[in-house]
Amino acid sequence: MLAELIAGQRPRLLAHLVRRFGLAHLALAEDAVQQACLRALDHWPREGQPTNAAGWLLRVAEHWAIDQLRAARPLQAWDDLPAEQTEAFAAAPTASARFAGELDDDELALLFAACHPAVPPASQVALALRSLTALPLDTLADALLTTEAGLAQRLARARQALAGVSLTVPTGPELPARCEAVLATLLVMFGEGMKTSGRQGDRQAGEAHAQALCWEAIRLARAVAAHPRTASGEADALAALLLLHGARLSGRLDEAGDIVPLPGQARDRWDAGMIRMGLAHLQASQGTPAERGSGPATSHAPLLTRYHVLAGIAAEHALAPTPARTHWPRIVAGYVLLLRLDPSPAPRLGHAIALAEAGEPAQALALLQAWLPQGPAALRPHALAAMARAHERLGDTAQALARLSEAIACVRHPADARMLQARARTLAASAE
């Protein structure tokens, strides 16, 4: 299906165009990709899908962009894309070829280029996400815990700030300074893929798109951790975090395509290889630069970041043989440490959820009641569901069902509503 092809190839299409025309023409590149997709929808049903569909899309997008530039600047010559480049376009870069030079990966180059220091870090993340994922503004706004209008203004200001800047793919010593925004972008990108899983109307196409986001975020995080200019404990910790969560994707949906909450997932469906790989990255993240092969020896302890703590929490879930044997006190301790590094709304919510599971539902409920009036709207259904769990642990089924009803009323996606409704039915039946 065209939707599946675009989900997998769009970042590479956009990256090729941005590398060709420059990040200053990002909006043009986005429009060119859209035009190519519309052309495919018109031609392919009548003429059949070409053998090299990705190369076809790239040629159409490239030619449309050149036409726009010629119309704007008729005296400037623009060469057509070499045929051999479009023929090779559909093939993914091999592991041995990747990073042969500085950022020898178009998607990673686009990501680092979008995280330009001329704009604030939050705007770097927003611009990079918009470039890499093409997710709708309302979806991105939820992911970034802001409003759609606020995100649109942030993107507009970022593009204005970059309008007069000479934008090139950063190299060498320019890369480390952009790593913080790059890693933050990949975390949000992966999280949005996880949230999108199970929410699409077309299950097959929806899962392809959701998993494409997750796998690409994992690939790029591991690439950042492997590159000699960007390798760090923080990058390894993010790679560990994404791998440990990604291992659960295979058990996240039931046969009907509905979301299965973590406690109900069949753990033998989790990807054991990804868990081992995630744990290896987590171990590597705790070494010194010299031990990772990325810098000179040092006597200082490696820097602890929020990615280290989040990966440690994910490891506790991944290693627990059953939900009942999850070591919740260690997870609570992890969140206490995380809140010192990042006291934002999401970690505060996670801390309260962990407290309820660790046997402190009254304390969790007090924290959630204080959190709710000021927490972002995108997290409100999660907070209400957490309050329901705390009431359930306290033996107050009526209040638990009331909170679940509130959560169902304000949740945005039908798949999430079905998951909460199933939980409510189970809770009601247990009370009879």
Automatic annotation (TrEMBL):
Record domain DUF6596: where: 178-285
Organism in which the protein naturally occurs: Ideonella azotifigens
Domain RNA polymerase sigma-70 region: 12-73
Name of protein: Sigma factor-like helix-turn-helix DNA-binding protein
Lineage: Bacteria, Pseudomonadati, Pseudomonadota, Betaproteobacteria, Burkholderiales
Listed Gene3D superfamilies: 1.10.1740.10, Tetratricopeptide repeat domain
